[in-house]
Amino acid sequence: MKYATTLYAVVLMMGTSTVLAQPKDESGVAATAVSPEAAAWVKANAIPFDSPEAGRGFGDLAPLKALVGDARIVSLGEPTHGTREAFQLKHRLLEYLATELGFTLFSIEANMPESYELNQYVLEGKGDPKKLIGGMYFWTWNTEEVLAMVEWMREYNKVAASPVRFTGFDMQTPTMAMGIVAEFVREHIPDDAAAIAKAYDTIARAEAGSGDFGVGTGSFPVEAARGKKLIFSGWIRTENVQNGWAGLWWRTDGPNGVLSFENMNEHGPRGTTPWTRYEFALDVPKEVTNINFGVLMPGDGAAWFDDLEVRLDGEVFTDPERFSFDFENDAVRFLAGLSRGYSLRRTNEQPHGGTTCLELRKTARADAPDPEDAERAADEAAALLKDRREHLVESAGEKETAWAEQNARIVRQYARMMNTGDSSGGSNYRDRAMADNVEWILGQNPGAKIVLWAHNAHVSRAPIWGQIWMGSHLEKKFPGQMVVFGFSTGFGHYTAVESGKGLSDSNALESPPAQSVEAYLAAAETPMCFLDIRAAKQGDEGSGWAAQIRPMRSIGAMAMNGQFTPVNPKQAFDILVYQHRTTAAKQLDTRPGR
Prior knowledge:
- By secondary structure, this protein is α+β, with helices and mostly antiparallel strands.
């Protein structure tokens, strides 16, 4: 099941989609979706705020003091990874929480050691903030909004009695962490430097060659397939496919996780094979809320796909503006690839029909160490530091030793994720690791209070798509000490990677569907508001909607058609944030990376 689990994680990285009946314009969203009782409850309890921008005082935010209370952790989500006003409001909330409620730690969904470099800037003014933000690698944080927050932190810290520190809790890249550990060992236990170098070389080579699962993923309209018999077919040819197979796949999801799944792992072609037609059948349950599908190839080699066909209750499904199942239309890019170590592209190399087909090819080095070897090497490096701890504390001090140990832990987390896939046993490993890292940050700062910045899914306490997220792990570690803000947006645009076109700030937000979280929040009839939903009760005519599973916008790094995910708002969040109209986050004029 490793491949199926890894596939699920890849799809989660893209996000999921639900297609429901949607109001056609902003004016109709509340009236068509919300009962009078619910509208009255939302209006009575909504807390309007004046602006998402920092530096405007705290009069309109004063009610948040009672909502946050004595929480040690305030988690701030976001509806997309590229919404300007959501980012601006998180900056403003950090300003309020630091100035009025004594929060002194900030931590972002970015790699830990790279994020800590920014701490030197916000505390002491060392370094170029643009370069340091870019050094966190991802375009999602390489924005004018994040830079403005960092610059505010620097100015605040010049006069603050208790400065705000900048940290990060993610672990998706091991390079800097390995360098910190290796340098620390060379300085304090040089006799062990060769052993550390060997272990980390194994991990670096495994990372360069990582990727045991290539996949192309698309979203399928739910209403077109609901309750029908599916036959998914296509033509496939392969070349030297080893340690895996080539195939088509289809997955349907319901409110509580996967309903049905097929990926041809038992009968997909292996080795070198000519063009051959393959098909499988699935029932699409009536309770389906999301459908993803596509092509895949675990292992080495290359596979080509052409002339896909979807039949629903015996009828061929077509939607030429959205799907080019023969891959002939240059403008229609409905499958996106996110797999490290693989390429996904249209090609005119020996198509089955027409002039083009789709190629999925392993590009990683064939001689790379196995991910299991990488995880074993990371364990050995961490164990070495543990064995030498007494000497290291004497030589370097407790603080520096703890930092080296934590970086060794980051490397172990990365290696384990690379070996097991992002998801393991229904529990998202990356999110468990991020929660562990937040716990470490707080352990290094006894009594301090922290503001977390991440996507809505990561801060959620509730399972989404059968996965356990960082917020759930943190609740177990710090029971009753966390307040979670779930962000939503009604209309506008967002920045994301558009399949086949790259990063774009012109992606449109789909209108909120009837019965969505956004439709209820629009009933407040204010452009921006907070809503405390902790008192919502199942079955209550006014508040019961917040204690039921319903669509809520959820977009990650990829632009999406079908942008809403089933969520139980009360189980996931404490306070909902609504911004009626938002715009795309603005990229800095420098590229992220090192």
